[in-house]
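tl;dr need the bound structure. longer version: we got a ligand (magnesium ion) that a collaborator sent over and nobodys looked at where it sits. i said id run it. heres the input, straight from their email, havent touched it
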Amino acid sequence: MSTLRFHAVKESLKREPVKIEELKRRSDVFGSNVFNENAMRQYLTKDALISVLEAIEKGTKIERLVADHISTGMKEWAISKGATHYTHWFQPLTGATAEKHDAFFETIGNGLSIEKFGGNQLVQQEPDASSFPHGGIRNTFEARGYTAWDPTSPAFIYGTTLCIPTVFVAYTGEALDYKTPLLRALQAVDNAAVAVCKYFDKNVKKVNASLGWEQEYFLIDNALATSRPDIVLTGRTLLGHSPAKGQQLDDHYFGTIPNRAMAYMRDLENECMLLGIPVKTRHNEVAPNQFELAPIFEEANLAVDHNSLLMDLMHKVAERHSFKVLMHEKPFAGVNGSGKHNNWSLSTDTGINLLSPGKTPMSNLQFLTFFINTIKAVQTYEELLRAAIASASNDHRLGANEAPPAIISVFIGAQLTKVLEELETVTKGKLSPKEKTDLKLNVVGKIPEILLDNTDRNRTSPFAFTGNKFEFRAVGSTANCANPMTVLNSIMAKQLIDFKSEVDTLIDNKTMKKDDAIFNVLREYIKTSKSILFEGNGYSEEWEKEAVKRGLSNNKTTPEALKVKVSKEAIQLYKELNVMNKVEVEARYEIEMEEYILHIQIESRVIGDIARNHVVPTAVRYQNILIENVKGLKTIYGDKFKDFAKEQLMLIEKISGHIEAINTSVTKMTDARKLCNKENDIEKKAKEYCSKVKPLFADIRYHCDKLELMIDDELWPLTKYRELLFTK
Ligand code: ADP
Ligand code: MG
């Protein structure tokens, strides 16, 4: 065994679970490192408290003077918890979180010092941000960006630092982060949904989008993971033959959680509790060493922040347990990858989940309104939704028979399908009193009962209704949920605005009653959005063919999928809703294309390096041993040696064949990369990387993996799948 691999395996075998001290009752410590309402009541003046609460509930502005009071209270609270520094915490378009710590500590002359944190420092900061991706925005306009406090997501303490969630924008106002467009989209859907809710209940003043994510991940022993250059540099294995045993026995899903992993989870959950992340569920996933963690759902902006924070925490806590967390969508070939289901719904300030059937026929009409509008929104903007989850790493997962295909469709279950069929037949125009009663009693009125046994869940659907929410399942495990949430809430906002306008027109023009008008518009929506509804097996080939007939998009790669983001329709949509202007949309497109290119470029370099510098030399070494062996046999047996050395001779030849093939492919790949790099058009460049560079990975891998099976295990330099996946 190569020294590195040998030491890594030896290390990994020595590990014991870290002893975790259990916190007190979880509900007692929950959110104790969060500047939540509880803490604010203790540390803020009444005016300051009211001001923050109103900003959260109504989005009102916080006056400068009040901000000074808030910052003082926040500082006192933070210091009482042992904090020494503060930071504006934000989510630039790198996909990671960013922070820059400043001490509260300040000198005031004469050798004196104080702890200071004023309103200015709370509200706005200017990070040296020139090295965050900006897609040309800050080049064209100003070279500076600033972070600004988002009071709707509470400040928290991690370690000894007070972290203040902020947006990150250019001085000219363009968003440079994930949060800004998300907040705007949430505002848009709030406005549009409140307007529609008023048909049913005049008291509704606010509608919140909710998000419950489910985070999948792999836990790999740190020594083993860091012995693999591909994992270190790309987050996934670029080579590696499948182990004799994989996930085919289905013995991992929901199985007993191994002790080391359990200690990690408990430690992580304790940290989550302190930070107010309401984690609830943990279990083994399908693949060996794969797990999932899910919280109780929250308001979408907070849930997005919590997921970003959690991903950071996961890496930090893993260090204590000598684990490396692999968040990548496809760390191992032939083994299920990881996703991040986004459960989504809308709920009112009066406590109604708009995607949950109610107890009365009237509230069910409201449910149907939001339910059908969601379907219609997805039908109209399916390609945009697909684009929202596109990334180089998620390309490996979508359509690989382990996750939804790249085709977006909606699953609603047999019972609701039947309800829609019945609604489709309602009379055009005014409904007769009998028809209305029938509908209310027999169709709409029956929904809660039928939903109770709506158990046929279709795991192959990318967008499924699951009783009281939709579950967007195609989101990748590394994704920042802000991206899909911005799109989903934007298209829903747009759809609800259109719906309201159509219903109002019918009421105004034809003197139709409200209910009649709603039924009429919904009926048309059911007719026009049928193409997106699919109940069958989303992994099947027939579905691919069927989807083409239905005119649904099937954008299999990121460069193909992203294009729609800069379409006229998309730009118009975001402009109309005030979510993003053209410059912002185009900047994001450029950043994502660039990121795709860099991703493939790095992987290509790494696989080339491993193949040439690790695999080929090992193959040569082993071949030399075989040659020595054959020579020895010849010395002893003369020409008869051929009878004894058949296997060796065959191996010598085969090894040469694979070495030759590897070298040819690596050279081809390097040449292709050089050509791509000459391309200045970012769209063409991404496409070429996708069609000319990336396909060669498979060729190189094929021959390397064959060699792994032939070469003496003692010599093989790379930690094997068996070791990575089955070390507990
Ligand atoms: P699974 O999908 O794994 O079968 P569940 O259906 O119980 O599990 O719930 C999955 C996730 O859905 C949980 O994280 C939960 O918090 C979230 N969820 C439940 N209700 C809502 C809602 N109204 N809005 C958003 N997310 C929700
Ligand atoms: Mg789920």
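gonna send this back to them w/ a short note. The CA atoms of residues 31 and 276 lie 4 Å apart.
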